[in-house]
Amino acid sequence: MPLSHQDQVSLLKDILNNHQTDCCGSVSECEQLERLVKSLMVNTQIDQNVKSILQEVYNYSQYGAQTADLDEHILSNQGNLSQWVSNIDSYS
After folding, report:
1. What global pTM score does this model have?
2. What is the mean pLDDT of each run of 10 residues along the chain (92 residues)?
3. What long-range pairs does 29-37 form, CB within 8 A, spacing at least 24?
4. pLDDT the model gives residue 59
5. Which residues span the domain enclosing 58?
6. Which of 3, 11, 40, 42 is the most buried (most CB within 10 A)?
7. What's the domain count of the chain?
């Protein structure tokens, strides 16, 4: 059963919140973020302002999936993580 766009946004925010709170994550979480963002980017129900945030999240997740030190990547993006969740909330 496919997830609704609201479920996808919730899952996206959950993963970002976990990265922000735990200061660590996994490559599979970054890959999941990539898949969620791709799906949401083509959704016409998503606010255009959220799509610009999604592009930033996509770049973050792509780099995270390929970096040798994922925890450091997450740590260096702490400010972005909380800002992205906050901005997505304000447009959702």
Report:
1. 0.94
2. 88 97 97 97 90 97 97 97 95 76
3. 30/61, 30/62, 30/64, 30/65, 30/70, 31/61, 31/65, 33/57, 33/58, 33/60, 33/61, 33/64, 34/58, 34/61, 34/62, 34/65, 36/8, 36/11, 36/12, 37/12, 37/61
4. 98
5. 5-91
6. 40
7. 1
